[in-house]
């Protein structure tokens, strides 16, 4: 009988431990947001969330209001939906919310990169130095040359370039932006023709990884897909290996600066290769898809296309792209294109759907804009999904699902920055780049790169949809929450190089 005591005790501890792990013991405490654990132990709402995050959050907001906590695969996420309450979260003056902890785990899993002390701060300071201001001017030049190379080839347009060519618009845009971005940031060998071919091959592999990415993050891959992801990771580590850097020229100062920091920290070359893969992903995963949406919206809205072409002709003047020659165009003119700026901002409003995540470090109080206080529990994750809360809010953006190319223009034609919710001026009226500590450090480069691409496409090419009546395709529901969305299917289009006038 005496022996049974410890056995029963251990059993009880194991049962309680299991129940705790499965989330069955968690109860809503006073002042905490509404808690929705879902009906399946531990998994909670994971299936519905992963199937279509946008629809799931819409449903939860209708059920619980502007703040709620849901269980997703054993982890509790508190979503704040009211954009007027974002301020204290993004400023985080009390330093109770942590971005780095979650990000470190994710990049280890996805890219194999193990973070070192200070690298997160270093990425942001490298970006301030080389992806903004004077550093950006230099990179923009390199980007323009790479875009010209990717669009016209290394020996110039083929004799049939002025005939119509048919392609998938998504593939076409992603492919060009990827090749141009990759070559400008990671450099090239002397043989540009060969390098362009390699960039093309790398793009094919990049897309394979890209397609698996959402389910990889959610740990939903089948055994074969796991093997494929492992192969792709190794392929990218090798393709971006720092060992080859000595053979390359034109590696951007941004990459050079960051790799030097890692070397000084004693990070081994194999880990630097993984860092490069992470940077390739961050820099190339969104610009292609965003440029696709931008061109598609222009093709579907002739009045917008006319306005952009008119502005572009004024800005470009006589400048014309010619293979192998530097394009005679003052890049600072990109700053004087309010119509194209508005088109890009509207495209990002409709196309960019990131999730912002912060780990709650200590229990603390969040004050909402309506004056109500909520207790956030240590260890939970605080999440924002601005696409639903901001981009699609009809109060902030009337007719939110409609593309309006001049939505971000004032009647006098300058940039519009005044937007309101419930009569109050709202600071975060779009958030394609995230915000606060984790805001995208490449946003200025991304914008100028995409603007250059659109500018060159609309001035140098005739473009048309194969079926002009084809509707804008719906978003692939798997991509909600992962930066720029992707279409659920391709859109066929035709293009031909315009003859020089
Ligand atoms: C349309 C293009 C782009 C979009 C929509 C975009 C969006 C974003 C977003 C939303 C984040 C923050 C993610 C978070 O909060 O966890 C982010 C992070 C990041 N982006 Fe971008 N991005 C774009 C292009 C670029 C480019 C061209 C570069 C570099 C050349 C870049 C470099 C980075 C880096 C390094 C991070 C991680 C920053 C950190 O760890 O704090 N991005 N991007």
Automatic annotation (TrEMBL):
It is a single-pass membrane protein. The keyword Ribosomal protein does not apply. Its cofactor is heme. One of its GO terms (cellular component) is endoplasmic reticulum membrane. GO terms for molecular function: heme binding; iron ion binding; sterol 12-alpha-hydroxylase activity. Belongs to the cytochrome P450 family. Keywords: Endoplasmic reticulum, Heme, Iron, Lipid biosynthesis, Lipid metabolism, Membrane, Metal-binding, Transmembrane, Transmembrane helix. The lineage of its organism: Eukaryota, Metazoa, Chordata, Craniata, Vertebrata. Signal peptide: none annotated. The chain crosses the membrane at residues 6-25. This is 7-alpha-hydroxycholest-4-en-3-one 12-alpha-hydroxylase. GO terms for biological process: lipid metabolic process. Heme binds at residue 440. It is found in: Endoplasmic reticulum membrane. InterPro entries: Cyt_P450 (IPR001128), Cyt_P450_CYP7A1-type (IPR024204), Cyt_P450_E_grp-IV (IPR002403), Cyt_P450_sf (IPR036396), Cytochrome_CYP8B1 (IPR030686). Substrate binds at residues 109, 286. Gene3D superfamilies: Cytochrome P450. SUPFAM superfamilies: Cytochrome P450. Its main location: endoplasmic reticulum.
